[in-house]
Amino acid sequence: MAALFKARRALGMVVGHGVRCLSQLAELPELHQMMRQTCRDYAQKELAPIAAQLDKDHKFPAKQVKELGAMGVMAVEVPESLGGAGMDYLAYCLAVEELSRGCASTGVIVSVNNSLYLGPILKFGTEEQKKQWITPFTTGDKVGCFALSEPGNGSDAGAASTLAQQEGDEWVLNGTKAWITNCWDASATVVFATTDKSLKHKGISAFLVPMPHPGLSLGKKEDKLGIRASSTANIILEDCRIPLGNMLGERGMGFKIAMQTLDSGRLGIAAQALGIAQAALDCAADYAHKRTAFGAPIGKLQAIQFKLADMALATESARLLTWRAAMLRDAKKPFTKEAAMAKLAASEAATFVSHQAIQVLGGMGYVTDMPAERHYRDARITEIYEGTSEIQRLVIANNILKEYQQ
Amino acid sequence: MSARVLVGVKRVIDYAVKIRVKPDRTGVVTDGVKHSMNPFCEIAVEEAVKLKEKKLVKEVVAVSCGPQQVQETIRTALAMGADRGIHVEVSGKDYETLGPLQVSKILAALAKKEQADLIILGKQAIDDDCNQTGQMTAALLDWPQGTFASELTFEADKLKVVREIDGGLETIMIKLPAVVTADLRLNTPRYATLPNIMKAKKKKIANVKPADLGVDVSSRLEVLKVDEPPQRQAGVKVETVEDLVGKLKEAGRI
Q1: Active-site amino acid positions of A
Q2: Per the database record, which ranges form the Electron transfer flavoprotein alpha/beta-subunit N-terminal domain (chain B) (predicted)?
């Protein structure tokens, strides 16, 4: 009798878990809906009205980042004991999408802090490191950044030429990191440097460096096509000395940390791309109702209708891929292939949708009076950073071939 | 302070939605339309939560009357910081004809049952613009009322309420227990934080029926018809001031 009861309960849990996973694609749980709504409200009221000006001024939205910190959005997955919101990755993806719909730059600032900075420390840090490097970065007062790319290698991450040499009780870092998002506004960074050149990519280690810090300087802020409110620059390390305790994870683990971090990070970027795509679609659909030509709103013309349908399809498909990858990650299942698919689909959707949005708006799409041109500029980077579309295709292909291994 | 605050929250069509009248002109289209908490109710919740944070009140109870969907509205209040919720189940025809008189009877009954010391409501709902529930509730309970409040201060066992009136601002002192209705400038409602949304899930919402409170929700009003506002007519351009005066006289305006 007891055995039967146990078995029935176990089956119920399995079925319940499975049903919950599937039904989440049809309708999000109430918690996630509330979270999505609060982020949407914030983005609509506080981000959308200032996004154009932030872009024009290349201005970091410090006030908004603090407010988002107070809402728990700067550290969604971090447990409450460390100052975070203690929610799951699906919630995080929803948050980034809604915020990016208001302002893509704010979206990437939130994403980099959550996925690329807090992510690896949460996963690979010691309890001491977590207290020191996570908690102050949950409130929005401080943001972090992730320094992997170099002038000599982006996709070729294994060829890191930044060196870390042990001298007594210190690590000494030397080298240059390039394209670092958030760096002009950051208070700490996760840096990847080679500790054993002979071991090639197995000789890379990860380090935590506070900012500012002697031996660490920043290159000039890049003048970018889009996401201009977020700062991007080089980080130059010249005899930058940090305590031995600042190594993240084990020696030689750096490449693995970077790759696993990017697996999750690319879902944040997928979410950002979805937000940009959705904002562009909002703009185009609204215009289709209001703009009249040939005696009727242009939304009545099939040419426009087909565009809107394709735009919505691309966005919704990428969204479901993103949600699925996030759900797999939350269920602690392998999600590398799905994450790559999500990032690839979402970033290509963002560029496609924003391109078509300008087309729907015609001349109005080309001027700064309408946000369509900003979405077009913001979308472009999503196909490049945190793994180019080409790298995503390689990741997907490798996984497929493994599945079909002879 | 051992005060318990009751806050009424109403689920209304979202302020940003374009309202459409139903083809049979019996009401407005609500199916599939975005709903949210009445903005003045948000301000009421925010004020109650602020009082709790200042330790001037002990417990904030959010109340809503309506069908299953109003639980979303109650949960939003919980996510803003209310401690628990009460869902008064009213559905179908009763919900369609639910108005200030019935709601104020319900709130009065709940205030007695929950031993509330203060009721904070929005000054009016953005769907019917009645601006009656607060006043009726106070009358039914024989409690003092501070309506259109733009500032609320506790002074010993009294409330100092600054009211927004046509002539400017009026300050009154009322004794507790009392009813206060929130006006626009009382505060700026907070965004629900993620940790509070998580906590809201665990907070309790009790279910009650109007009959349990001894309230009859049948309406004494009948809606005859609902129409869209008249279409705005184009104006007429005139050349001189004399023409303008002439046209106004013609139209009987002066």
Answers
A1: 386
A2: 25-217
Q: Which CATH class is domain A256-404?
A: mainly alpha
Preferred mutation among A38, A286, A289, A290 to probe B, highest tally of B CBs within 10 A: A38
pTM: 0.88
**Secondary-structure class of domain A144-254 per CATH:** mainly beta
Q: One fold for both A29-143 and A256-404? A: no
Q: The CATH number of the domain where B13 resides is what? A: 3.40.50.620
Coil vs helix vs strand at B76? helix
Task: Point out the residue among B72, B191, B201 whose CB comes nearest to the CB of A38.
Answer: B191
Total residues found in chain A within this entry: 406
Q: How many residues in total does chain B contain?
A: 254
Q: Helix (H) and strand (E) counts for chain B?
A: 7, 11
Query: What residues of chain B lie within 8 A of the CB of A76, using their CB?
Result: 194
Q: Are A8 and A2 in contact (CB under 8 A)?
A: no
Cβ–Cβ < 8 Å for A396, A337: yes
A274-299 tens-digit pLDDT: 999 999 999 999 999 999 999 999 99
Could you read off the pLDDT of B169-228 as tens digits, one per residue? 999 999 999 999 999 999 999 999 999 999 998 999 999 999 999 999 999 998 899 999
In CATH, what number does A29-143 get? 1.10.540.10
N-terminal to C-terminal alpha carbon distance within chain A:
46
Which chain A residues are within 8 Å of B198, Cβ to Cβ? 31, 85-87
User: What ipTM score was computed for the predicted complex, to two decimals?
Assistant: 0.81
Q: What letter would DSSP give residue A47?
A: I
Question: Are the C-beta atoms of A104 and A227 separated by less than 8 Å?
Answer: yes
What residue spans define the domains of chain A?
A: 29-143, 144-254, 256-404
pLDDT confidence of B1, banded at 50, 70, 90? Answer: low
